[in-house]
Specification:
5 helices; two-stranded parallel ribbon; Rossmann fold; Universal stress protein; Rossmann-like_a/b/a_fold
């Protein structure tokens, strides 16, 4: 299972698709269209064609790379952290981004923090690789 915030998290989606492929599981891709002060997609409803089309567009590149992975795309109006924690009770693994891209090292965003504190399955926080930094360069 993975949370999908935008197309700006290709590492999260790639890792989620790769895990689903290797484990032979269905990938549940959850996107919250909750409106509010921090919402990146205002004025959409979870059941709208636009919300589903946007999620499908974000998933398309990895679906092309992993055509054998079965994806269950879900759009919801509930806050992302709440819905991911709820779905974690039936998930084998939850893969999410760390959020807050420009934040100081080690800081998690609101959704990532909620998932960390309350998920009932293992959680992986995926994000951009920083190989050069850890290779001593």
């Amino acid at each position: 299972m993975t949370g999908v915030r935008s197309d700006g998290e290709p590492d999260v989606l790639h890792y989620a698709f790769r895990h689903a492929q290797l484990s032979g599981t269905v990938l549940r891709a959850v996107h919250s269209v909750a409106t509010g002060p921090n919402s990146s997609i205002p004025d959409l409803t979870a059941g709208s064609d636009e919300a589903r089309d946007r999620l499908d567009a974000w998933l398309a590149p990895e679906r092309g790379r992993f055509p054998e992975v079965v994806v269950d795309p879900i759009t919801t109006e509930a806050p992302a952290d709440e819905v991911l924690v709820r779905y974690s009770s039936s998930a084998e693994l939850l893969i999410v981004g760390r959020g807050v891209p420009a934040a100081p090292r080690g800081m998690l965003g609101r959704t990532a923090t909620g998932v960390l504190m309350h998920a009932t399955c293992p959680v992986i926080f995926a994000g951009p690789h920083r190989r050069l930094r850890y290779a001593g360069k």
